[in-house]
TrEMBL record:
GO terms for biological process: carbohydrate derivative metabolic process. GO terms for molecular function: carbohydrate derivative binding; DNA binding; DNA-binding transcription factor activity. Residues 1-54 form the HTH rpiR-type domain. PANTHER family: GLUCOKINASE, RPIR-FAMILY TRANSCRIPTIONAL REGULATOR. It comes from the Bacteria. Pfam families: HTH_6, SIS. This is RpiR DNA-binding transcription regulator. The keyword Cell membrane does not apply. The gene is rpiR. PROSITE patterns: HTH_RPIR. Keywords: DNA-binding, Transcription, Transcription regulation. InterPro entries: Homeodomain-like_sf (IPR009057), HTH_RpiR (IPR000281), RpiR-like (IPR047640), RpiR-like_SIS (IPR035472), SIS_dom (IPR001347), SIS_dom_sf (IPR046348), WH-like_DNA-bd_sf (IPR036388). The lineage of its organism: Bacteria, Bacillati, Actinomycetota, Actinomycetes, Mycobacteriales.
Length: 256
């Protein structure tokens, strides 16, 4: 199970692995020791290290090619960086994870979306796309702590929290995730760094966006969002088609 889902496994605690595998916690420790590790914690650290090396290698290759292209315009260089990041994303996120994210969206009663800073445009686009699919959506980005707290009053087990978090975790994000865990709300994390959050999300979509300290793109998380939407339209066509037709009818009414 760990090998089939290495991105998410790098975030799991020992008890998370045991629960997902349906075994006692001691079995996880024994398995890690059989693989040559002192315990599961050391195995998880190795998974994180390997993933970090993979992300670094993807961008090192792209960055070297980027620097070797002499005479490029700034626009041309940015396009090259975008292409490198988008290409790396295909090797970081598989279709199974996209499908699981789509299932979470469609099974949720209410969807809460959270992001800060550069993530706010992503939250806005997520709200719009999910709303067009007939989902009940609450955008928490750009809100004050008071506004967020008021919107969380009805959050519960049937709901989903979608989080855009990059590079580092913040105190408000940690508080929000802790509250979601307390009320059994599922979490979908879209990120570029597997170590940014805890508690562990149900589904994590992680792909590099560029090197820290240099230009980082929003195209990669937007690509993952679009992949989720397309997966929903393909897998839940009969569920979303009535809402799309209704939206079309409403818009046509405004035109007359």
């Amino acid at each position: 199970m760990i090998l089939s889902r290495p991105q998410e496994a790098a975030l799991w605690r020992g008890e998370d692995v045991a629960a997902k595998a349906g075994v006692h916690g001691s079995a996880v420790t024994r398995t890690a020791k059989k693989l040559g590790y002192k315990g599961y914690l050391e195995l998880r650290q190795e998974l994180r290290r390997m993933h970090d090396q993979y992300l670094a290698a993807e961008h090192s290759n792209g960055r070297q090619a980027f620097r070797n292209e002499a005479g490029q315009t700034i626009l041309g260089q940015l396009v090259s960086r975008e292409m490198d990041s988008l290409s790396a994303a295909t090797g970081s996120v598989d279709q199974h994870s996209i499908n699981r994210a789509a299932d979470l969206v469609m099974s949720a009663r209410d969807i809460y979306i959270y992001g800060r800073g550069n993530s706010i445009p992503l939250c806005d686009q997520t709200e719009r796309r999910f709303r067009r699919l007939g989902r009940s959506v609450h955008d928490l980005s750009g809100e004050t702590d008071q506004d967020i707290a008021e919107q969380l009053l009805r959050m519960g087990e049937p709901d989903l929290l979608v989080v855009f978090a990059f590079r580092r975790s913040t105190r408000p994000l940690r508080q929000l995730l802790n509250y979601a865990e307390a009320v059994n709300c599922k979490v979908l994390l879209i990120t570029d760094d597997l170590r940014v959050v805890h508690p562990v999300p149900v589904v994590t979509l992680a792909a590099p966006r560029g090197d820290e300290g240099t230009f980082t793109t929003l195209s990669v998380p937007m690509l993952m969002l679009n992949a989720i939407v397309l997966s929903i339209q393909r897998r839940y066509e009969h569920d979303v088609a009535p809402f799309q037709q209704k939206l079309k009818n409403i818009l046509e009414g405004f035109e007359y």
